[in-house]
Amino acid sequence: MYDADLSDEQIMLKTTVRDFCRREAPRDKIAAMTNNGETAHVDALYRKMADQGWLGIGVPESFGGEGGTFVEELLVVEELSYGRAPVGGHLTTSILVHAVAEFASDQQRETLFPAVVAGDVMSIAITEPDAGSDVSALRTRATERGVGWVLNGQKMFCTNINIAQWVIVVAKVGGQSDDRHAGMTLFLVPTDRPGITHNRVPTLGHVDTNAVFFDNVEVGPEDVFGKVGGAFSHLISLLNTERLILGAYSVGLARRALDDTIAYVNQREQFGKPVGKFQAVQHTIAEMAMKVYAGESLMLRVGRKVDAGVATGQEASIVKLYTSEAAKEVTLDGMQMMGGYGYMMEFDMQHYLRDAVVGTVFGGTSQIQKNLIAHQVGL
Ligand SMILES: Cc1cc2nc3c(=O)[nH]c(=O)nc-3n(C[C@H](O)[C@H](O)[C@H](O)COP(=O)(O)OP(=O)(O)OC[C@H]3O[C@@H](n4cnc5c(N)ncnc54)[C@H](O)[C@@H]3O)c2cc1C
Questions:
Q1: Which residue of 2, 118, 131, 134 has the fewest C-beta atoms within 10 A of its own C-beta?
Q2: CATH assignment of 233-376, given 1.10.260.40, 1.10.10.10, 1.10.600.10, 1.20.140.10?
Q3: What is the mean pLDDT of the chain?
Q4: Nearest CA to ligand 1 atom 1
Q5: Which residue CA neighbors atom 9 of ligand 1 most closely?
Q6: Which pLDDT tens digit goes with each residue over 284-311?
Q7: Residue 42: what are its φ and ψ, rounded to 5°?
């Protein structure tokens, strides 16, 4: 229904990922694969994705990747989200691999790209207990020692560090300054670097969410990711990529909720006929379909502009805001259309809803996206 404006190759890619999810992670096997939801990332499954070449889409061919387009990356994220494949590490890694292409040193690229293509996972630690939407309020410090620094501080809500081999952390170097962005620097470090510890933070949905502690973690000039003091502008670019990838995640989730709802209302009978024959149900589902269509169209339009090098930050915010709010509405409507069964843990709609809600928070809340859009239209 929504594939009309894709090329044959893009349709083939989507179909192949969809079939992979159905074959390798069918609904009745996911509980066993994930140890009853203890993890959202099954390494063996992720390595099978590596064999398909999908982990190298954002990696240049000269580093063993596919050198694919950003639209292809979005389509893979969308289908993995639709297919509910337990490969949670893909989301953060596919965001961060673009930052590697953009800011990393040659040495970091030589290490990171082949590792990511083979199945390594990357994570990012920006948020702190007292610095969420206001990133520049961060307190994690990198204090100079010899030719390098030592990192001390605490991060919050770090997705996937518990399964990742790499973490990008933002810290402030240098003394106090009136400029709140001064000294903000990204460091790329292996997660097993001495002094890094993490605890899982229980949430409504995501299981691989963590508080992270940096206790005298030694970092050298070779660990700087981008420029010393350059993190604020690096993060603007990184977060724009993140907002588009998270948009693809929300689109896949909403499309899955729509398809499950249609299947349910076609088979559930009340008053002697399928509930899908009632106009009130049909109208709700028509609105759900409209939101999925609009979200997918927006995602593709801006994805194509990224590939053409003409996308703006405002467009990334629009995609993130629209698709995440739409996914929340669509999954909630899907639950209502299923009556009491939508509320049961045995059905998946409650899981889709819980995963959709966080889409309006991580990567910058909906309120922050509205601030950014309003600012960019001159307010
Ligand atoms: C499951 C999960 C995974 C996450 N993964 C990561 C990760 O991997 N790495 C990472 O660094 N972070 C991660 N985050 C953190 C996420 O990005 C932050 O939660 C988010 O940016 C909001 O920060 P906060 O929670 O501190 O909320 P706050 O910033 O305290 O906001 C509280 C409320 O105030 C509103 N608000 C704040 N400032 C303004 C403003 N200027 N104008 C209008 N409204 C405003 C917000 O919209 C929100 O409604 C994750 C969060 C969750 C829940």
A1: 134
A2: 1.20.140.10
A3: 96
A4: 206
A5: 158
A6: 999 999 999 999 999 999 999 999 999 9
A7: -100, 110
Pocket residues for ligand 1 (CB within 6 Å)? 124-127, 132-133, 157-159, 203, 206, 209, 358, 361-362, 364-365, 367-368, 371
| 210 CA to centre of ligand 1 in angstroms | 14
The CATH number given to 124-229 is 2.40.110.10
Class of residue 53 by CB neighbours under 10 A (exposed 0-12, middle 13-18, buried 19+)? middle
Output the CA 132–ligand 1 centroid distance in Å.
Answer: 5
Could you tell me the pTM of the whole model?
Answer: 0.97
Minimal-distance CA residue to ligand 1 atom 41 = 368
Residue from 250, 236, 363, 369 nearest 299 by CA: 250
Place of tokens 């399928």: 274
- Residues 107-112 have a mean pLDDT of 97
**Residue range 8-120, CATH number:** 1.10.540.10
Give residue 4's pLDDT. Answer: 64
- Return d(Cα 372, Cα 361) in angstroms, integer: 15
Share of the chain above pLDDT 90, in %: 95
pLDDT at 335 (0 to 100): 98
